[in-house]
Design goal:
With 314 residues, the protein is of the alpha/beta class. Helices cover 34% and strands 30% of the residues. The longest helix is centred in the middle third of the chain and has 16 residues.
């Protein structure tokens, strides 16, 4: 059973004075997110990401199609009981302390006081806010507010956590701390739904991604699957003799990224249509006494792949 599934999901907003105009925010989206995955939802502004998240949280009703969390209708009490949510911009009362804030949100989530008394100190310590429980929230930095937001989202011990731009406006040290927390939560079996424009962060943590464009799902898969450049490999080896490099039937060239890697190693690029061709190239190199350090599939950055997708007219 997936943690999250949507089928033929569409949402049309009515606009204008007499609500005669319409905007198609989502157009027949279908996707699934496995339990224990870190899922990244990507797309340019206006792609429909916020609408999809609102439907999954039960804040907006779809025009057609279905959305389910742990096989329960999105927005139902049974589904909401198993989720936590960290919005992009928190609106915590500045005059509350961190502990008071967590108690207030814990009451809204129906977490009993005895459980709150136990969990709140544990969460503050876990999120590097130990000793800040009696500090007014208005004095918190952006990174501290994000960690406090994670603490409130974890109070009800959710199985599925929605994070909306969790590292937006946070310095590199804070981003690293939040990223480590997310990875730890995955190790505990929690499912993470991440909505972010920081593609470098998504690339580091997500096991699955989906890209929306104009309300339509245009790509879905793992980061490795989507960013791989088909049948092109980066090879690091001891220098290859020029006579071998100049052989016309050897699909091997110096790397355009630069020649030297270390004092005795050089980077090359191999183009091989299949595994047999790749191994034949490696065999010829070994016969020429070339020592191979590594060979890895060439990949685009997620940012380059994303731009190619959203700029494509097909």
């Amino acid at each position: 059973m997936p943690a999250l599934s949507v089928s033929s999901l569409s949402k049309t907003y009515r606009t204008g004075l007499l609500r005669r105009a319409s905007v198609q925010a989502l157009n027949g989206i279908s996707l699934e997110v496995d339990e224990g995955a870190i899922f990244g939802l990507l797309g340019p502004n206006g792609a429909g990401k916020t609408t999809l998240v609102k439907i999954l949280l039960g804040l907006v009703h779809p025009t057609s199609g279905t959305a389910r969390l742990f096989d329960r209708p999105a927005g139902s009490p049974a589904a909401r009981h198993r989720i936590g949510f960290v919005p992009e911009n928190h609106r915590f009362p500045g005059f509350f302390t961190a502990t008071q804030t967590l108690h207030a949100y814990g009451r809204l989530a129906d977490v009993p006081r005895t459980e709150r008394n136990q969990r709140i100190p544990q969460l503050l310590k876990r999120l590097n806010l130990d000793g800040r429980g009696d500090t007014k929230v208005k004095t918190f930095s952006k990174g501290m507010l994000q960690r406090l937001g994670l603490a409130q989202a974890l109070l009800n011990e959710p199985d599925l956590l929605f994070l909306d731009e969790p590292t937006g406006g946070v310095d590199p040290v804070g981003r690293r701390a939040i990223r480590d927390i997310v990875l730890t939560l995955q190790d505990e079996g929690k499912t993470i739904f991440l909505n972010s424009h920081l593609l470098s962060e998504v690339e580091k943590v997500c096991t699955q991604i989906a890209i929306l464009r104009d309300g339509t799902l245009v790509r879905q898969g793992s980061v490795d699957e989507l960013t791989a450049v088909e049948r092109v490999y980066d090879l690091v080896a001891t220098p290859i003799p020029d006579t071998l490099l100049e052989t016309s039937d050897l699909p091997l060239d110096p790397s355009p990224d630069g020649a030297s890697v270390e004092a005795d190693l050089t980077q090359y690029r191999v183009r091989a249509d299949d595994r047999t061709t790749l191994n034949a190239v490696l065999d010829r190199l070994r016969e020429a006494d070339v020592e191979i350090e590594s060979i890895t599939p060439l990949r685009k950055s997620l940012e380059d792949y994303f731009i190619d997708v959203v700029d494509s007219s097909t």
